[in-house]
């Protein structure tokens, strides 16, 4: 009987020990699982934060790059617009001067002055007694004109025969839009006081200052 009691007591102790060890092992395993879970969670959080920081930095970098590109595009657009505007204004100014000169040099009194200057004493001293052909716009002669020298003198601003020496001939020309051009007969020398030449000369001196005004230099 005592032996059975002893055996029963040993079995109970064994069961208790197994239970206690199982509980202890379970607790240790649970603690390990919790520790691993915490470590994993911290790693995930750290990784997520790092990824978020990297993404935020990437987005900020892209925003800064886009902003810089946009500002540069606006700067270039403003520069190009300004240049185009200046070019347009200058082109308009050139056209205006050319139209003004062309209109002025088609007036008979102006043409008369130009012809007389070209046939004047200073020019005569330069070319001596050589024959001259003074070409003026054929528009001054009207339609159905003839090329008789006296007729030409009468038509072009009422220049009388006494105003021009012999050897000077007025010729209507399609390539002269205003003013006059003098050609020494038999030579390549030409004196150009046509509308184109006068416009070019005026613009040569006027454009630099006009550009200065546009750019605020003057």
Summarize the SSE layout with pairings.
Elements: H1 2-104, H2 108-118, H3 121-127, E1 132-137, H4 149-155, E2 168-173, E3 179-184, E4 190-194, H5 195-214
Parallel strand pairs: 1-2
Antiparallel strand pairs: 1-3, 3-4
Helix pairs in contact: 1-5
Gist?
The chain has 218 residues and is of the alpha+beta class. The protein is 68% helix and 11% strand.
Q: Any idea of the CATH class of the domain at 108-208?
A: Alpha Beta
Distance between the termini: 131 Å
CATH architecture of the domain at 108-208: 2-Layer Sandwich
Poorly predicted tracts of residues:
none
Strand content: 5-15%
- Specify the structural class: alpha+beta
Structure keywords:
single chain, 218 residues, 4 strands, hypothetical protein PF0899 fold, 68% helix
What does this structure look like?
- This protein has 218 residues and is an alpha+beta fold.
- The longest helix has 103 residues, at 2-104.
- It is rod-shaped and about 160 Å long.
- It has a domain at 108-208: 2-Layer Sandwich (hypothetical protein PF0899 fold), CATH 3.30.2320.
- It has five helices and four strands, in the order αααβαβββα.
- It has helices at residues 2-104, 108-118, 121-127, 149-155, 195-214; strands spanning 132-137, 168-173, 179-184, 190-194.
- Strands 2-1-3-4 form a four-stranded mixed β-sheet.
- Helix 1 runs antiparallel to helix 5 (195-214).
- Helices cover 68% and strands 11% of the residues.
- Strand 3 (179-184) and strand 4 form a beta hairpin.
